[in-house]
Amino acid sequence: MKHHTRFFIFHALVPLMLTISYTEAHAQNTIKFYSTFAENNVPPADCTQERAVVAPIIDGYQHPTKWTWIIACDEPAWNRVLNHIGQVGVKGEILATTDLQTQVTYVRGFAVIHPFTKTHENLTEHVIAHELAHIMLKSHDEERVEKAASAMMRETRTSVASSF
Ligand SMILES: [Zn+2]
């Protein structure tokens, strides 16, 4: 997987850079948008399309009761996130990143609705499962996290399949 998650010690100033702050409460989870193209505080269509993909995936897994998910809706917005968290020029495609300390996960929205690979549908699920594994394990150990993410995805598929 060409995504990875980093842990950042400094506190994110992201709320200050939010062009729009459209918030949806999912239990006590919050999904926010960070968009370059929002006008009059209305989230653009790409934001809402991305949320429509991401939110059910989060809900389908065991997830923390209090967490903030920020969908960077477009690539300029995502690049500003990367810049903000000091990930510019990192090799490979970062598709999401989690800050365990500030309890924020950033999701690259463009990759959610624009296929990068043929296994695109699984990609977003894998990305979310991976970030959730970081969150639930409170771990930065990529190997351990990825193992947990794979197990989570298998279990979810099994329980969905057995409910038919
Ligand atoms: Zn990771």
Pick out its properties.
alpha/beta; 6 helices; 45% helix; disordered N terminus; binds zinc ion
Structure description:
The protein is α/β, with parallel strands linked by helices and 164 residues long. It has one domain: Glutaredoxin, CATH 3.40.30. It is 45% helix and 15% strand. The protein is built from six helices and five strands; from the N terminus they run H-E-E-H-E-H-E-E-H-H-H. It has helices spanning 14-17, 45-60, 75-84, 109-113, 120-137, 142-162, and strands at residues 23-26, 29-34, 68-72, 96-99, 104-108. Strands 1-2-3-5-4 form a five-stranded mixed sheet. Helix 2 packs across helix 5 and helix 5 (120-137) crosses helix 6 (142-162). The longest helix is centred in the last third of the chain and has 21 residues, at 142-162. The radius of gyration is 15 Å and the shape is globular. It starts with 13 loop residues before the first helix and ends with a helix. The protein binds zinc ion (ZN). Zinc ion is lined by residues 4-5, 130, 134, 142, 145.
Characterize this entry briefly.
By secondary structure, the chain is of the alpha/beta class. The chain has helices at residues 14-17, 45-60, 75-84, 109-113, 120-137, 142-162, and strands at residues 23-26, 29-34, 68-72, 96-99, 104-108.
Distinct ligands, ions and cofactors found in the model: zinc ion
Radius of gyration over alpha carbons? 15 Å
Number of structurally distinct domains: 1
**Strand order across the largest sheet:** 1-2-3-5-4
Q: How many helices does DSSP assign?
A: 6
Largest sheet, strands/sense/barrel = 5 strands, mixed
Low-confidence stretches: 1-21
Mean pLDDT comes to 79
Structural class category: alpha/beta
Strand content: 5-15%
Protein name: Peptidase M48-like protein
Keywords: Signal
Organism: Edaphobacter modestus
